[in-house]
Design goal:
Strand content: 15-25%
Number of domains: 2
Number of strands: 9
Strand order of the largest sheet: 6-5-4-9-8-7
CATH class of the largest domain: Alpha Beta
Order of helices and strands: HEHHEEHHEEEHHHEEEH
Shape: globular
CATH architecture of the largest domain: 2-Layer Sandwich
Radius of gyration: 20 Å
Number of helices: 9
Helix content: 40-55%
Oligomer: single chain
CATH topology of the largest domain: Beta-Lactamase
Largest sheet: 6 strands, antiparallel
Distance between the termini: 45 Å
Structural class: alpha+beta
Length: 247
């Protein structure tokens, strides 16, 4: 029994190390040890095993670690959501080319949102949107869409979670969610990040169920509230088209 617990703990630690790479692309061993709260000798052993199996690669010139090819081999076999993100990609490129800003797709995972696909703006000053990043649900246009169009029971559970910042007026926030349902889109202006703004619309399947949030974001100097209101019909039309592509 003790051996089984030890094995599970080792797997848990190895996964914690792999999950470090959701926040940035490369790490030093000491950074990983500090981040996951493990002794350096333990992290060293774990990294050696992960490197041997191809999940981690080490740059011997800098002694920093990054994800290995085995991760990409696994990702090639992803289904459903991953396939859907690929199907939506040409439409996202079209929106990017029309509006000139970064376009992203977000899905909800518990009390967070995950960027599952992104097409970067070609402009010199732009918002960079790495795929796979997890962000909190309490801020941002796509977060509001993911909450507004959720099942009512799920929505209530999300809004009653203790993780919401105390500065948010929940009554006002609920009214905002109702407006989003009426308007068909949400906006955010420097809510999560200074100098950034975003517009988001829901992608609904043929049964009217929320599949994802389509978002366009950029510098607040370009993405003014007037600009976002002008972009809203374009985004809603694109989201409707993407909804018809859901398999």
């Amino acid at each position: 029994m003790e051996e089984g617990k030890s094995t599970v703990r080792a797997v848990d630690r190895a996964l914690d190390i792999l999950l470090c790479f959701t926040s940035k692309t490369d790490w030093a061993m000491t950074e990983i040890a500090e981040y996951v709260g493990l002794h350096k000798s333990t992290v060293h052993r774990m990294l050696a095993t992960l490197e041997e199996k191809g999940f981690i690669e080490r740059d011997r010139s800098t002694e920093r670690y990054h994800l290995g090819l085995k991760v990409w081999e696994l990702s090639a076999n992803l289904s459903r959501t991953d396939d859907q993100a690929t199907i939506w990609l040409p439409e996202m490129v079209r929106i990017r080319d029309e509006l000139g800003e970064t376009v992203s797709i977000y899905v909800r995972d518990g009390s967070e949102r995950i960027r599952m696909q992104a097409v970067q703006s070609n402009q010199a000053v732009r918002r960079v949107a790495p795929v796979g990043v997890r962000l909190p649900l309490y801020a941002g246009a796509s977060s509001k869409v993911l909450i507004a169009y959720s099942d009512p029971i799920v929505q209530d559970n999300l809004l009653q979670a203790p993780t919401w910042p105390s500065y948010i007026d929940m009554e006002q926030y609920r009214r905002q969610l109702q407006e989003i349902m009426v308007n068909g889109y949400a906006t955010s202006f420097e809510e999560r990040e200074p100098g950034a703004a975003a517009l988001s619309s829901p992608i609904l399947d043929r049964n009217g169920n929320l599949a994802a949030a389509l978002s366009v974001s950029g510098p607040a100097s370009r993405m003014t509230m007037d600009t976002m209101r002008a972009y809203a019909p374009i985004m809603m039309d694109a989201a409707r088209r993407m909804g018809t592509m859901i398999r």
